[in-house]
Amino acid sequence: VLLASRPSGVPAPEHFALVRTPIPQLGNGQILVRNHLLSVDPAQRGWANNEGNYSDPVSLGTPMRALAVGEVVESSTPHYCKGEFVYGWFGWQTYCVTDPDAVLRRVTQSALPLSANLSLLGINGLTAYLALHQLGRPVAGETILVSTAAGSVGSFVGQLARILGCTPVGLTGTAEKVRIAQQRYGYSTAINYRQETAIAQALQHACPQGYDVFFDNTGGPIADAAIRSMRRHGRIIQCGTASIASWAKPVSGVRNEREILTRRLQWSGFIIFDHIREFAAAAEKLTELALSNKIVFDEEILFGLDQAPTALSRLYRGQNIGKLIVQLV
Amino acid sequence: VLLASRPSGVPAPEHFALVRTPIPQLGNGQILVRNHLLSVDPAQRGWANNEGNYSDPVSLGTPMRALAVGEVVESSTPHYCKGEFVYGWFGWQTYCVTDPDAVLRRVTQSALPLSANLSLLGINGLTAYLALHQLGRPVAGETILVSTAAGSVGSFVGQLARILGCTPVGLTGTAEKVRIAQQRYGYSTAINYRQETAIAQALQHACPQGYDVFFDNTGGPIADAAIRSMRRHGRIIQCGTASIASWAKPVSGVRNEREILTRRLQWSGFIIFDHIREFAAAAEKLTELALSNKIVFDEEILFGLDQAPTALSRLYRGQNIGKLIVQLV
User: Fold this and answer.
1) pLDDT of amino acid A53
2) What is the least distance, in Å, from the CA of B223 to any CA of chain A?
3) With CB atoms counted within 10 Å of each terminal CB, which end of chain B scores lower, N or C?
């Protein structure tokens, strides 16, 4: 699946082209990965655009950048053996010839399904775990507000907050997601922000004492309202800006510097790829939690490479529950 | 000097009344402080307004809240002796009867003038020292941008940054202040933001590699431009919002959440009164630096209590160099 033209905002199917080309020859030190499962991530919007993002945009005419789990089917390096599974930058394609530095983590065999390596043990679970612990620094008894509570990251933040003895409160966009957040992801309350005319009042009602951590995946006016109910010394984790369709031009909003000052907030940006060296340890911890039934993970699996181009717009319409994955094998 | 009416924005002389009343009787455990020097601080704008600030507004008809240095002239508590000097919440008045909890710090005798307790060793110097070290976490070799570089806090931030082996770059509002920032406060460059039509370009020119710490006393459009040149993992210290005349209504601006995310910024609010227990140690350190001629401090002293009501608008017009102090004795 090549990126055929440059989108402005969320990439739609017309920005991609599905082509069939021969598998290139392996160079010295390279591996050939047969992709089993492809990841669909909100961050792909930024990679497909050219918005001065945190990583270079995907070049037109090249395979769409994506995380994937695959099997090493050929290897010309002693570091990887034929038959082992790896997680890394293998793109939206069936086979990938690559240098080993595209591998982020070796897949450890466990009783969990292989797909867990893209959800719980992929960047979603790892982001929830590392961002919440490192930037949120939650203390038992604190309240934690999470935007996109039923999303691929938020679903883990609620459960991890609960494990830490905190009270997670969620924001999400449908009645169904409110139900799932509360019944499945540990949220004590969830607010349907599309149904509320006054989000600030809904937050006030749900958390009369405010909250200590705001795990923000959306940004925008919902986040502005949320910031205005934060407790003193609260921590904001900026993990995504899903509510803003494009940053190509400056986006206006309400100024927050007075809130940061008077509430003594600490507002931090989190990009998971700064933390690659911590992946293995965090994945081990998350595997333990899942195997002891302390954490659940949901996935929505689409079958076939031709599903990939539509998957991103599906994600941004908020139609999926849990991690969106394209299965090839 | 009583707060006579509630200002909206910067308090002007007409919001105050100068009245003469008898000194109240000392209660048990109280002290009578004769004020020698009164502090004039940007934060007083917030205390006089009713903007949902970090501290309660000053009640109408009561003395204007202010820090001061004075002499204990009567004491009905064994904790304070007649004749000792103290720094604390004694208000814009000649005498103050108060419980000892209004005292923030005992004044330690040194070769520095008494007024240094309101400037270098007062909240200005303490803010520069504690905020820069705790939230800025500067490392030798880093670049530090400071708004209001020649102001009562910024004048110390530049010098402290230089002492730490960093490169301080300043923003300030007059050519004279540019000169002082560079010649006196250790700044390697200073930008006159009033003279620049394109502040972003001026910043780019002054710091082609960006900066690691942004010590922000102003907020507003200058800060927006500054944020867009920050280096990855940069730290923003929100220490004041002097460029915004009133926060009574929401103030609009450009959204910064994408910058926080992609640059992995950490944006923190700093209020000096959260750090009272650290005052004595920080003041000792600053005294050492001043006595060994590593740091200079400037003060502009107005004489007489009747100068106090005009002092705040003077401060907000940016007319003073260094710490503005009203001397009574």
Assistant:
1) 63
2) 10
3) C
Q: What is the Cα–Cα distance from B146 to B153, expressed in whole angstroms?
A: 10
Which pTM value belongs to this model?
A: 0.90
A250 part of contact set with chain B, CB < 8 Å: yes
* Token reading at B189: 């460059």
CA distance A35 to chain B (A): 29
Specify burial of residue B314 (Cβ count, 10 A radius: 0-12, 13-18, 19+). middle
All residues of chain A having their beta carbon less than 8 Å from the beta carbon of residue B252 are 252-255
Q: Are B270 and A254 a contacting pair at CB < 8 A?
A: no
CB-based contacts of B295, cutoff 8 Å, min separation 6: B120, B156, B159, B160, B163, B286, B289
Identify the residue whose tokens are 């708004």: B147
Give the pLDDT of residue B53.
63
B223 inside 8 A of chain A by CB: yes
The span from the CA of A4 to the CA of A18, in Å, is: 9
| Burial degree of A106 (CB within 10 A; 0-12, 13-18, 19+) | middle
pLDDT at residue B129 is higher than 90: yes
A174-213: pLDDT as tens digits: 999 999 999 999 999 999 998 888 899 999 999 999 999 9
The helix or strand, by DSSP H or E, that contains position B190, with its residue range, turns out to be strand B189-192
Q: What is the ipTM of this complex?
A: 0.89
Q: Give the containing element (helix H, strand E) for B163.
A: helix B154-163
Residue A12: name the closest of A323, A320, A317 by CA: A317
B200 touches chain A (CB under 8 A): no
Alpha helices by DSSP H, listed for A117-246, are: 123-131, 154-163, 175-184, 199-206, 220-227
**Which tokens hold the place of B288?**
């050492």
Residues in A 38-57 with any Cβ partner in B closer than 8 A: 52-54
Separation in Å, CA A258 to CA A273, B204, B234, B250: 31, 26, 20, 10
